[in-house]
Amino acid sequence: MHVSGVAVFLVLIIGQGTADCPDGFVKHDTSCYLFSILRVSWIQAMKLCSVYGGELATIESREEEAFLETYLHHTWTTYNQTDGIWLGGTDLLVENEWIWAVSKEPITEYIRWAPGEPNSINNPGEDCLDFLPHKNFLWNDENCGKLLNFVCERSLLEGYVPPSILG
Asked: Tens digit of pLDDT for each residue in 75-99?
C-alpha cells in the first residue's frame, strides 16, 4: 500500500513538471522563461540556463519578443538591471554568421537588429547577442565577456531535453 502512494506521488510530480513552469519561471505559449538579475558573461549565462534545465532564450517571432518586452517593461526595476540582456545568439563559430547557439540554427526567420548592428566587423570580439532596453529591445552584438543580465528559456513540450551547449 505504501509503495502505491509513492508511485502516485511521483506521477503527479512528473505530470506537473510538463504542464507548468518551475518556480521563478514565467509561462508564455509553450515555453517557460527565467529573467535573471545576475550579471554574468554570455558563457556563464549559457551554463546557468543549462543548470536550470533550459538555454539562453531564442526569439523566433514578434509575439515572443513582445512577451519578453512587456514582461521586462512591467516587472523589472533599475536594481541590478543592465542595459543589455543576453540572448542565445552568437557568431563565435563563423564571423557574421549568426546562429542560435544551442540548436545551431541560423538566425534568419526573425531578426530585429538595431540600426548599424551587428557591427563586430569594426569592433572585434562582439560575438554574442543581447537586446537593449534603451533601444526598444532591438538586438546588438556585444563582447561575450561583458557582464549582463540574461533570459533563460525552457520548453513545456513533453519529453524535451535541451541539447548540450555548443557541442
From this structure: 776 666 888 999 999 999 998 999 9
Q: Which three cell numbers stand for residue 151?
A: 533570459
Distance separating alpha carbons of residues 148 and 158, to the nearest angstrom: 31
Tell me the backbone φ, ψ of residue 87, rounded to 5 degrees.
-120, 175
Q: What is the pTM of this model?
A: 0.81
Residue ranges and CATH numbers for the domains of the chain are 23-155 (3.10.100.10)
The answer to whether 106 and 58 are in contact (CB under 8 A) is no
